[in-house]
Amino acid sequence: MTTTGTIISLYITVKDVGYPVMSVSCPFYSANFHVYTHDVYYGDGAIMKAKAVADSVISLEKGDLKNIFFQNETPGNTAYVAIVATVDKQWVKENP
Question: Is residue 94, in this structure, part of any structural domain at all?
């Protein structure tokens, strides 16, 4: 069975405390997280031990953007993350 989806893109400013990419559920088939400016920690909010360095790309399959959190590695340094994700077409219709 082939899965078709719609591509969405987001741009977030990373904070000094763990914060989710989205506040509402947004299941994705695949997502690329492009980290800019400074290093960040990422995880599920409870565990923030994975590190991504500036100018790197994190690729994940089958998850929910509500459950992906980012946090600046160094407080006071503001990192930015651009996200490109493939989501279900129905989600896009229901969340314009």
Answer: no
Tokens 């947004």 sit at which residue? Answer: 26
Q: In whole angstroms, what is the distance from residue 26 CA to residue 12 CA?
A: 15
Domain of 35, CATH number, reads 2.60.120.770
Both tokens of 39, joined, read 């290093």
Determine the structural domain holding residue 51 and report its residue range: 6-88
21 touches 60 (CB < 8 A): no
3-state secondary structure of 2: coil
Residuewise pLDDT in 10s, the chain (96 residues): 455 789 999 999 999 999 999 999 999 999 999 999 999 999 998 888 899 999 999 999 999 999 999 999 999 999 999 999 999 988 888 887
CB-CB contact of 65 with 42 (8 Å): no
Q: Which residues pair with 19 in a beta bridge?
A: 70
